[in-house]
Amino acid sequence: MTPPILRTKAALRDAVLGWKRAGETIGVVPTMGALHAGHLSLVEAAKADCDRVIVTIFVNPKQFNNASDLENYPRTEEADAEKLAPFGVDAIYAPGPGEIYPEGFATAVTVTGLTDGLCGSHRPGHFDGVTTVCAKLFLQTLADRAYFGEKDYQQLQVVTRMARDLDLLTEVIGCPTVREPDGLALSSRNVLLPPETRAAAPALNRVMRQLAERLAEGESLGPVRFQAEAALREAGFSEVEYIELRSADGLETLEHPTRPARLLAAAWLGGVRLIDNIAVG
Ligand code: AMP
User: Bridge partners of 265?
Assistant: First the structure.
């Protein structure tokens, strides 16, 4: 059975207060819809841990720094509800924009430091949009736990810090990236890749894995990064926004993986921005 779709925060509040009164734990999986197996892995993790699971579907205008990206973002609510049917999700919360940003809305949640660099420098305002909507969704759903993908690694770190800094009662849980068999990280934007570019897309993950291996063997990022960028251009990528090595915890810039480290990259293929990240060492 497809889960009930709740459209207002009042309807959501009714449901979650009932569950809370019964002593049940609530897990939330925040998404922008166009669900794929990556999202569904978060739903499975939430189901395994929590008595009740809410999947939110909200294409959050505040986290788009580009109007055409927002306009072109895939919206597939009916298919999303069908995909969730086998998982025993208790509710889909798909609010209209006014439920999240009522007229006169004037508040923003900002995390500093962790949002410098990486996607933060290339997408101005993006993380403020993410943290503002996540704070609201955590409070509206009264969730005990919220499930996020490592696919958006900087986002996971930023949202974790936000919840901690604001003493929110929602614990942020990170889950591994789900990939196609060829290594391409699943993403709602993959459907926007022109068919002739799809074969080139796994080069991002392949080049990153080769780079990570060389870093783990002791080479410095500087020179090998140039080679990786050239390999991506050779494969058909039009622009490499960044390839960086950061500490896994605080996202500090590293030249060598001297502590638990993450290689993160963003690059453009066929007019679509792809991101990926992997552990190093
Ligand atoms: P989005 O709908 O793109 O905002 O993503 C919603 C959630 O799904 C975020 O926590 C993402 O990190 C997560 N997610 C997206 N793609 C994947 C993937 N390939 N594997 C695991 N989680 C993912």
Answer: 243, 276
How many Å apart are CA 100 and CA 114, to the nearest integer? 25
Active site residue 39: yes
Whole domain around residue 253: which residue ranges?
188-280
- Within a domain: 46: yes
For atom 14 of ligand 1, the residue with the nearest CA is: 149
Binding residue positions for beta-alanine: 63
Q: How far is CA 90 from CA 26, 81, 87, 122, 136, in A?
A: 10, 11, 9, 37, 19
Instruction: Identify whether residues 145 and 244 lie together within a single domain.
Output: no
pLDDT averaged over every residue in the chain: 97
- pTM of the predicted protein model: 0.98
How many whole angstroms separate alpha carbon 7 and alpha carbon 60? 15
Q: Which of 130, 173, 157 is nearest to 29 (CA)?
A: 173
Domains: count for the chain: 2
Are 90 and 129 in contact, with CB atoms under 8 Å apart?
A: no
Q: Dump pLDDT digits (tens) for 47-98.
A: 999 999 999 999 999 999 999 999 999 999 999 999 999 999 999 999 999 9
Q: Where are any strands of DSSP class E within the chain?
A: 5-6, 26-31, 52-57, 91-93, 145-149, 171-175, 239-247, 261-269, 272-280
Helices (H), 109-220: 119-122, 126-141, 153-165, 195-198, 203-216
Ligand 1 pocket list (CB less than 6 A)? 31-32, 38-39, 41-42, 148-149, 151-152, 175, 177-178, 185-188
